Amino acid sequence: MAERIPFIAGNWKMNLDHLQAIAFVQKLAWTLKDARHDYGVTEVAVFPPFTDLRSVQTLISGDKIELGFGAQDVSAHPNGAYTGEISAEFLKALDVQYVIVGHSERRQYHHEGDEHIAEKVANAIKNGLVPVICVGETAEDLELYGPSAVPVQQLHGALALAGGATNIVVAYEPVWAIGSGQAATPEQAEQVAEQLRYVLGEVLGGEVADATRILYGGSVKSSNIAGFLRQPNVDGALVGGASLDIAEFASIAQFRKHVGT
Ligand code: PGA
After folding, report:
1. Confidence at 261, pLDDT banded by 50, 70, 90
2. Confidence band, pLDDT 50/70/90 cuts, at residue 234
3. What would you report as the CA-atom Rg of the chain, rounded to the nearest whole angstrom?
4. Element (H or E) spanning 229, and its range?
5. Which of 108, 137, 138, 173 to mutate to test the pocket of ligand 1 (most atoms within 8 A of CB)?
6. Which of 2, 160, 178, 249 could form a disulfide with 118, with the two C-beta atoms 3.0–4.6 Å apart?
């Protein structure tokens, strides 16, 4: 069985300008260094706004910081007359490794549907970016269809043009848990993650399914992270609010200390 390196990803959303980002990343790197963080054992990445990426790239490469970084979205188009869009090619040119695709806030406020998300995923992969594909049910979905049906359907949709992909990350984020302070239970997250891994197997084959990291997201904190990472199919977390607090985010990245391993 493939060993999946746990991944702690900080989604800053629309917070911190490029100057704040520089100070933040510097402090985060120091905090993790002080805690003797081993990035080979637990991978950590931040997802700043587009306007911060160049500054973050320069700092990370100049100071040889092992922190990874990604973007929060990408265009479905390669380039051309798409005002306001950011191309995967441009992100790759900034050494961006990851890109969040299909976050529920994009689905909800920007009306992104499965087809559009599938194009973004395909475009990211084509340009050597690793998509962090977000799926998750609303409170209403949960009541109507149970926890897994909508995430499973969304993952199928997101992978529609991604046949042959080998390097992706999936984030299960129940919409009702995002920013609400009410996280899913580790058992709930595991139940859906298991179903999502099954979908990965169906679409991309057993080997890729086995190697793909599935994250949980939604009100993750240092006080609840260990429970999620104890689950066999949960391989990390996509952290929103708590990723803006350096001590808290560093403590989440150090979840092994909470687990006692
Ligand atoms: P939250 O957000 O940790 O603030 O709930 C998670 C996310 O939206 O990725």
Report:
1. very low
2. very high
3. 17
4. helix 225-229
5. 173
6. 160
